[in-house]
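Below is how a single chain appears once it has passed through the pipeline. First comes the sequence as given, then the structure the pipeline wrote out for it. We keep one example in the README because the format questions we get most often are answered faster by looking than by reading.
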Amino acid sequence: MQHQNLKVVKTNIYDAEALSSELKDCDLVLSCLGIRGKMPSGTSFYIDTMRSITTAMRKTNVKRMIAMSSWGTYRHPSSSCFIDYGFRFIIARVLDSMREMELFLEHDCQDLDFTVVRPAGLTDHPVTDKEFKVEVDCPCVPQGWCGSNFSIPRADVARFMLDTAESYSFPKTCLSIMT
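Resulting structure:
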């Protein structure tokens, strides 16, 4: 991937010092880190990487970050049965790790302007021009969204994250999105 305003580097995501040297002169961090496949018990990927990212951000005075999580990181009164019993059952360890990352940002990173984007199930379909449905502080599908598509193209999530970065929308917020 290439863009005049994009810098792609290969570094150790767990090493705050290595990240610090890469974040110099950056305006913000977009984090779309993830794990493929089943996550082993006790894995702390999301919290460990977020700690190193936020440490590097503080060292380099980068204040804005947009990170990706997922629907279903915790149970909520407005969630659907599908999320609570189907989706969560399949990838509970990953969702628990993502939730730990969200709580870390909410409780320990109030000096940073973070936004956590919780998309529906990701697909590799091309970008669309569909309007986004956004629900702040909700980990899943609100009841009113039933009948909606439970997936979203990765390209649309990127579009939402870039739009959010450009507009400086939703600071210090976790939100669910779908198209």
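Residues 64 and 168 are 9 Å apart (CA to CA).

See the next section for the split statistics.
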